[in-house]
Specification:
Elements (H helix, E strand, L loop, with lengths): L1 H15 L8 H14 L5 H10 L11 H10 L4 H4 L3 H12 L12 H11 L4 H11 L4 H12 L9 H6 L1 H13 L2 H9 L2
Helix pairs in contact: 1-3, 2-3, 2-7, 3-6, 3-7, 4-6, 6-7, 8-9, 9-12
Length: about 190
Amino acid sequence: MKDFRKKVRDYYQPYYENGDEAHLIGHADDVCDLALKLNKICDEKLVILASYLHDTYNAQERKIHDKLAYAYVLNRDDKFLMELSEEELLLVAHAVLEHRASFKGEFFSTLSEIISSADRGLPDLDFIVVRSMKFNHGNAKDVYDHIHDKYGTKGYAKYPKVYQRIFKEELNSFKKLADELTVERVLKIWSKK
């Protein structure tokens, strides 16, 4: 499977080259690593494909990148997607469409839950602060607002059942830390990166 993963990574890497610092190919690598660890029942080939496809259009059109990637998958526009059955194609397409923290619907499949969970990353406030600072070009006030709005106890981030089950205790602590975060703490974490 390592050979397949390398081929997939190499193929989709150009889509990530013009992304912001938080959405380069390393992010897709992290998503794939965590998705493979969380996976218990899905075909690894589909986990790998969905991991590397999920943010392919982020650099072009951030607000609708999930929809653009979904359409790309359904169009079977590349050699990896042409090899999938109709059912496999739908699983990957929906995992790509449903990966965002703001997704409000019910997940199409376990693969969707795994990719969405992996895209959240581990419930580690320091990691989220550093990633957010990279995305926001070091604007600590924006990062503070973003983390409160998205990750706090009343935040909009949706955590799939898989994620909630695996990281139950860590997630509760993480949300509390997000609530208690200050701009000064953001800067302190960023300075240690």
